[in-house]
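Please fill in the sequence for the structure shown.

STRUCTURE ENCODING:
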């Protein structure tokens, strides 16, 4: 049985979720002691559709302001902890909302967007996604976008990007970047997991990795909490305690239509199942120790059980993200 007393005092940050949000799911965040969560505004949407999604979140803030609040700075996360709410960080899982217009980086930053992936599985105008057979790296436009994101204070996320594209983003960016939701390839050979060389470059540049609980990233539903936390132990030994956090990639209440949109958008006539082929095209069951975000205390306890000190556990559960966001969300 998990003792939640230590967990309840922590700042807990989930660096990526992609759920179909309603009151029940927001209350699960509160039950799990989640101080802030990076939510997915976009997979394939263009600028206009993205504005609709932002407007939807404005209504959620209005209707559920007793338990959630918007986050534009690290100070907002600290305020969320103080008042007992969950802070919502806007993020894009693709660069599609900026279309081919560099000015939209600042526009969306002013609307509260603080994190943007440069690719989502496919080739984008910026770089190659992790499903592409050819990885040509960062484009001319991509170099401009990276510089603009650095300027305004929007974090670069390479979670769904290919290896060379990711390495070049680290090299080109004048500010540390992040991989918000993936695991080491050395733990599981999932297509979205990352090589030791890439993770080493990420850590040496001051970047952050968020460990994913998504079944396709951890080796399946039966992977134990002990094995998951053992992966964190091994990665900390390689990257350092300050370079890691949690990014669950939790997906809840997604309709079949939304799943089709997530996987294929409008770019394919066929449903692109990707990693989901092994699950018959659908979602796998989540591990017993992390069925919903209300189960976050289990991860805290799992880290303590693996021998992490309370101070280091606090870093992994959210303290590292808080400090990373403190600089990363600020303009230069």
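FILLED IN BY: designer on duty
SEQUENCE:
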């Amino acid at each position: 049985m998990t003792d939640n007393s230590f967990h309840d005092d922590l700042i807990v940050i989930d660096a990526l979720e992609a759920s179909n949000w309603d009151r029940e799911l927001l209350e699960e965040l509160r039950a799990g002691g989640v101080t802030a969560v990076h939510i997915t505004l976009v997979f394939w949407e263009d600028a206009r559709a993205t504005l609709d999604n932002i407007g939807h979140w404005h209504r959620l803030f209005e209707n559920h302001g007793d338990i959630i609040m918007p986050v534009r700075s690290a100070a907002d996360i600290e305020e969320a902890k103080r008042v007992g709410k969950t802070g919502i960080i806007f993020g894009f899982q693709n660069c599609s909302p900026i279309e081919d217009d560099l000015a939209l980086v600042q526009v969306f930053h002013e609307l509260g967007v603080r994190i943007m992936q440069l690719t989502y599985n496919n080739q984008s105008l910026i770089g190659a996604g992790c499903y592409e057979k050819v990885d040509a790296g960062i484009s001319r436009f991509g170099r401009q976008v990276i510089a603009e994101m650095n300027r305004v204070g929007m974090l670069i996320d390479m979670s769904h990007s290919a290896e060379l594209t990711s390495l070049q983003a680290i090299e080109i960016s004048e500010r540390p970047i992040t991989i918000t939701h993936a695991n080491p390839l050395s733990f599981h050979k999932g297509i979205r997991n990352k090589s030791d060389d890439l993770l080493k470059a990420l850590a040496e540049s001051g970047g952050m990795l968020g460990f994913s609980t998504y079944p396709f990233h951890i080796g399946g539903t039966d992977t134990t909490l002990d094995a998951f936390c053992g992966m964190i132990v091994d990665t900390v030994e390689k990257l350092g305690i300050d370079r890691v956090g949690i990014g669950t990639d939790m997906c809840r209440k997604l309709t079949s239509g939304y799943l089709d949109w997530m996987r294929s958008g409008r770019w394919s006539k066929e449903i692109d199942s990707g990693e989901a082929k092994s699950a018959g095209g659908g979602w796998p069951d989540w591990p017993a120790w992390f069925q919903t975000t209300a189960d976050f205390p289990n991860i805290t306890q799992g880290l303590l059980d693996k021998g992490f000190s309370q101070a280091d556990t606090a870093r992994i559960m959210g303290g590292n993200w808080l400090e990373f966001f403190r600089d990363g969300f600020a303009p230069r």
